């Protein structure tokens, strides 16, 4: 049982900070579904990225300045048993996001550009335990997204004709998830495979540019489908090996307002490649109250160009956490350092429009869980 407590605590490490993949800020984990009995948790993370670049074919040599402000993430989950075979969980997270603010006065072509992309999601999952240590689960996910952007360099005559601007109303839509798991509690082993469907949104958008002011359009955004393999197992007394392999179809994701595409010839935000993220970690129980865990995550840098509002390409990260257990309460604190992969951005047909190298982020998180 003590090894199992370590197991369910150590896997929380991945939720203490956001992912650097695409615009994904959580891995949409269903881990609360596997907690014992009735369970409630709250989580908070503060992420501080440092992302800057230099002009390539456009404004060569001009420094962009740091374009990514710090941000916060919140989440909660509730899990309960219906009977010996059925249990359920309600999970709230903020799975996708972006916040871009290019400083002015730099001479960089994108100076003064701002954008945000926000999301909130509530997932309801039902699990059925079979008698052979296998279980299956599935559920629905309701997701709301919103977006806006101001891009001053998309104009006929800078400072004279109006810059490009878009404001999109929020839109809610439903997706689904299905999964299966196998467990051996006596050695804290669990392997689970979870599929999350894509979710299609249509955002009512008002665009303004040299093509017209206050023009209504519809922006279609499809958040990507994903497949995640999570695993954990005790490998020695009080020692846990854990990790995951996660595939996300980022090639299907783009934000492409009509006027922007007509003016620039490419989407506002896009990613050419799908992504696979690998995570491997170890957890160690020190005593009845304290456990520690560490993990390494990796996502390949592909070299494909990106949009100017998402200038990242893969990452490597290291995370450390400490878990304090007292009675029915667990408090997990963690820190994660992310080395963001170098990226070249595209401006119309120009590649590289900007060159982004040697960027990073640091995140701090806390999660409080209670079994009752």
Provide the descriptors you would attach to this structure in a database record.
single chain; 372 residues; mainly beta; Porin; 14-stranded antiparallel barrel; 3-stranded antiparallel beta sheet; 2 helices; 22 strands
Total of DSSP H or I helical runs spanning 4+ residues: 2
CATH topology: Porin
Tell me the series of helices and strands, N- to C-terminal.
HEEEEEEEEEEEEEEHEEEEEEEE
Taken from the alpha-carbon principal axes, the silhouette is: elongated
% residues in beta strands: over 45%
Average of pLDDT: 92
| Name given to the CATH architecture | Beta Barrel
Order of neighbouring strands in the sheet with most strands:
1-3-4-6-7-8-9-12-13-16-17-18-19-22
Radius of gyration: 22 Å
> SS-based structural class?
mainly beta
Number of domains: 1
Number of strands: 22
Helical residue percent?
Answer: under 10%
Termini Cα gap:
17 Å
Low-confidence stretches: 8-20
The major sheet is characterized as: 14 strands, antiparallel, barrel
* The CATH homology group name: Outer membrane protein transport protein (OMPP1/FadL/TodX)
The CATH class label is: Mainly Beta
């Amino acid at each position: 049982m003590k090894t199992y407590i370590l197991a369910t605590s150590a896997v929380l490490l991945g939720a203490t900070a956001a992912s650097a993949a695409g615009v994904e800020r959580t891995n949409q984990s269903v881990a609360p579904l596997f907690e014992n009995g009735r369970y409630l948790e709250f989580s908070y993370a503060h992420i501080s990225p440092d992302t800057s670049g230099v002009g390539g074919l456009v404004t060569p040599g001009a420094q962009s300045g740091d374009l990514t402000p710090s941000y916060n993430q919140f989440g909660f989950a509730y899990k309960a048993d219906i009977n010996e075979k059925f249990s359920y969980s309600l999970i709230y997270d903020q799975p996708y996001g972006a916040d871009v603010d290019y400083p002015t006065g730099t001479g960089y072509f994108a100076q003064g550009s701002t954008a945000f992309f926000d999301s909130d999601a509530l997932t309801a999952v039902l699990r059925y335990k079979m008698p052979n240590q296998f279980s299956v689960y599935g559920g629905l996910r309701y997701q709301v997204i919103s977006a806006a952007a101001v891009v001053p360099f998309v104009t006929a005559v800078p400072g004279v004709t109006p810059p490009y601007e878009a404001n999109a109303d929020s839109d809610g839509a439903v997706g689904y998830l299905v999964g299966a798991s196998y467990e051996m509690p006596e050695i804290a082993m669990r392997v689970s495979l979870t599929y999350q469907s894509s979710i299609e949104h249509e955002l009512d958008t008002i665009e303004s540019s040299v093509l017209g002011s206050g023009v209504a359009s519809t922006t279609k955004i499809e958040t990507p489908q994903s497949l995640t393999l999570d695993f954990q197992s005790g490998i020695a007394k009080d020692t846990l090996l854990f990790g995951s392999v996660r595939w996300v179809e980022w090639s299907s994701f783009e934000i492409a307002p009509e006027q922007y595409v007509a003016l620039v010839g490419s989407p506002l935000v896009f990613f050419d490649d799908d992504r696979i993220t690998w995570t491997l970690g170890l957890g160690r129980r020190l005593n009845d109250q304290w456990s520690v865990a560490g993990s390494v995550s990796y996502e390949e840098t592909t070299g494909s160009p990106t949009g100017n509002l998402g200038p990242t390409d893969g990452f490597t990260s290291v995370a450390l956490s400490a878990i304090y257990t007292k009675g029915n309460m667990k408090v997990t604190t963690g820190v994660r350092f992310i080395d963001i992969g170098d990226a070249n951005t595209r401006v119309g047909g120009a590649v590289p429009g900007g060159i982004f190298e040697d960027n990073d982020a640091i995140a701090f998180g806390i999660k409080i869980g209670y079994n009752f």
